[in-house]
């Protein structure tokens, strides 16, 4: 189909989502080790595969979006970005971090969704996604490589 430009995101820190923190009864600053280790193992192989594909297909560009480190940065340093929590879901029910029951008509809602890293027990909030998108659009190779999205468009 003549596609030549691809952006592939890796797996985020799934051991740090409100669902995992709630079902494992963790403290606010803790994450579940095994899911994160598995994600990092997969992510390492993905990055190697994309580098290999870039070497073997010179007419195509495969860009690696480092979602894991981006989301982990927001979780670890949430206050720096204006969030009040990186553990509690804005919309959800059950447990310390509203992480058991997904967001629905009977869910509790936070007062200000722009202050939460996570919208529901599984997904980043709109405010978090804006920060992630800006990094992917104009960020350096720590979060997107071998080039950012703006550079890819011009490539």
TrEMBL record:
Task: Please name the PANTHER family in this protein's record.
Answer: GDSL ESTERASE_LIPASE (PTHR45648:SF1), GDSL LIPASE/ACYLHYDROLASE FAMILY PROTEIN (AFU_ORTHOLOGUE AFUA_4G14700) (PTHR45648)
Q: Which family does it belong to?
A: Belongs to the 'GDSL' lipolytic enzyme family.
A GO molecular function term, named singly, is:
hydrolase activity, acting on ester bonds
Q: Which organism is it from?
A: Linum tenue
Source taxon at top rank: Eukaryota
The answer to whether keyword ATP-binding applies is no
Q: Does the keyword Cell membrane apply?
A: no
Any one biological process term the GO annotation gives: lipid catabolic process
Any idea what this protein is called?
GDSL esterase/lipase
Q: Cross-referenced Pfam families, in alphabetical order?
A: Lipase_GDSL
InterPro entries, per database record: GDSL (IPR001087), GDSL_Est/Lipase (IPR051058), SGNH_hydro_sf (IPR036514)
What keywords are annotated for this sequence in UniProt? Hydrolase, Lipid degradation, Lipid metabolism
């Amino acid at each position: 189909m003549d596609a030549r430009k691809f952006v592939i995101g890796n797996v985020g820190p799934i051991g740090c989502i409100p669902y995992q923190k709630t079902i494992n009864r963790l403290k606010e600053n803790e994450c579940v080790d095994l899911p994160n280790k598995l994600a990092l193992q997969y992510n390492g192989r993905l990055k190697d595969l994309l580098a290999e594909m870039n070497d073997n297909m010179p007419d195509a560009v495969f860009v690696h979006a480092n979602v894991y480190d981006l989301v982990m940065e927001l979780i670890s340093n949430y206050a720096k970005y204006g969030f009040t929590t990186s553990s509690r879901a804005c919309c959800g029910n059950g447990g310390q971090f509203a992480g058991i029951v997904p967001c629905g008509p009977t869910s509790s809602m936070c007062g200000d969704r722009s202050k939460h890293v996570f919208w529901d027990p599984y997904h980043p909030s709109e405010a978090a996604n804006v920060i992630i998108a800006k990094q992917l659009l104009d960020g350096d190779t720590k979060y997107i490589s071998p080039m950012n999205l703006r550079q890819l468009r011009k490539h």
